Amino acid sequence: MKKDREERIENQKKLQQELTKLRAINNNVQKKYETVLGTEVRLRTELARVKTANDNLNKYLESKTKACEEENKILTTRNQELQKEMEAMKNNASAQNLQLVGSNSERLQDRQCVTATPIDGKVSVNNFQFVRRLGEGAFGTVVLAKGKLPGGPEQLCAIKAIQKRSITSSSICDNMAEKEALMLTSGHPFITTLYCCFQDKDHIFFAMDYMSGGDLKTQLDEGQVFSEERAKFYAAEIVLAVQFLHRNGILYRDLKLKNVLVDSDGHCKIADFGLSKLGLFRPCRARTQCGTPFCMAPEILKNLPHGQGVEWWAVGVIIFEMITGNLPFYYDEEDDSDDDRARDGLDQKIQHDEAEFPEYMSLAAVSIVTQLSMKDPEQRLGSKGSFEAIRQHPFFKGIDWKALQEKRVKPPEKEKFANRTPNRITRDSARY
Predict the structure, then answer these.
(1) Nearest-CA neighbor of 235 among 328, 365, 363?
(2) Does residue 234 surpass a pLDDT of 90?
(3) Which residue from 31, 129, 242, 290 has the fewest beta carbons nearer than 10 Å?
């Protein structure tokens, strides 16, 4: 009996120990369950929050998408209207001016030029005295002249003369586009002003601002390099001009230092709109490969549709050139007598190489040139979003954009340009 009792006591102890273990296990399981349950609650709460945020984001994206679609429709409609207007103008120009391309001088005398303005008939070549030749190229000849324009005092102006015999059915459209661009931008402080157009038997004339300071390329060659402050000043005025052009649907397409002129007050202006394209609002694209090879963006060289980003690429080239005196991508003509091979080499550098920056360039200058020189136009500064992205770059720190727009900022080297005067005026000192 005693032995059986001891065995029962021993079994009870074992059972008690097992029960204790089971209770401990049960407690652990309960704690884990409570932890899992708490995690599940938190996950459900987080899931609900994410779902709400996702719903709000979807609603926002839907509203922005609709807004963008509506804006694109408006811009597309406006662009189509402008394209139709331009096409009508081109057709009208072609119909009226094909006879200009010939040897019949009598027809040239009798036919009215399509570049005529409302003030034609009040101004002729006899209103001007010629000072000297300012430049010459495929576009025609530019002459410095002094004369009295309708409704204004006697003044100096630059007269661009285009020979009628050189006009073709395609080039007349370029001349019309240049005139229309100048008319649209007339009055902007950093874009040359077109005063009037007139003609004689042999020429079409554009009377524009005379910029006594010459072009920035000549100034750079004379002084080797600009200080970063001076480069920043000119670059800021160029940015304001380019942004104005883009807001008005004008793609300039030949931005370079040679086409940026300086007036006697030291401020600069963009000139020569012979390659400009009108009616090009976002997201429309141009396709023609044109411009100066050293300043062409990669997408132009690849014959891809391109937009306003090509202008910002050129601004980057200009900033680099003003500060260093060199182009970021170039070829030495003396080292390669084969023009085609040299041009191919330049194209490859622009499309694939990266610009090399001298040590003396500030980080801000390197940064803006780098961002303006992105090979992918979608990543290029200024190509997407607000125009303010460029103005807010650290390179332009300290620029009062409103004061600059109103020409209340003192230009660098102002005294140098104020002292420039033209040569003695004579009737026969310049011939076009």
Answers:
(1) 365
(2) yes
(3) 31
Q: Which residue, chain included where needed, has tokens 């100048």?
A: 182
The helix/strand/coil state of 334 is helix
- Count other C-beta atoms under 10 Å from residue 135's C-beta: 16
Six-digit token string for 65: 């998408």
Active site residue 202: no
Q: How far is it, in rounded angstroms, from Cα 392 to Cα 382? A: 11
SS3 142: strand
> Buried b vs exposed e over 292-302: b needs ≥16 C-beta within 10 Å?
eebbbbbbbbe
Over residues 164-200, the pLDDT tens digits come to 877 765 555 556 666 677 777 778 999 988 888 888 8
Tell me which amino acid residue 54 is: N
pLDDT mean across residues, the chain: 79
432, 135 in Cβ contact below 8 A?
no
Structure tokens at 248: 């008005």
Sign of the C-alpha dihedral computed for residues 296, 299, 301 and 307 taken in this order: negative
Q: Are 209 and 263 in contact (CB under 8 A)?
A: yes
CB-CB contact of 129 with 147 (8 Å): yes
Biggest alpha carbon–alpha carbon distance for the chain: 149
CA dist 38 and 32 (Å) reads 10
Instruction: Answer for the pair 145, 156: CB distance below 8 angstroms, yes or no.
Output: yes
The single-letter DSSP state of residue 270 is E
Domains of the chain: 105-209 (3.30.200.20), 216-418 (1.10.510.10)
Write out the two tokens for 347: 């194209």
pLDDT digits (tens, 9 = 90+) for 104-140: 333 333 333 333 343 444 788 888 888 888 887 666 7
Helix (H, G, I), strand (E, B) or coil at 249: coil
Query: Given 254, 263, 272, 347, which residue is catalytic?
Result: 254
Distance CA 78, CA 280 (A): 10
Neighbours of 356 (CB within 10 A): 8
- Angle 188-171-300 from CA coordinates, rounded to 5°: 70
Instruction: Kindly indicate the confidence band of residue 431, based on its pLDDT and cuts at 50, 70 and 90.
Output: very low
CB 280 within 8 A of CB 297: no
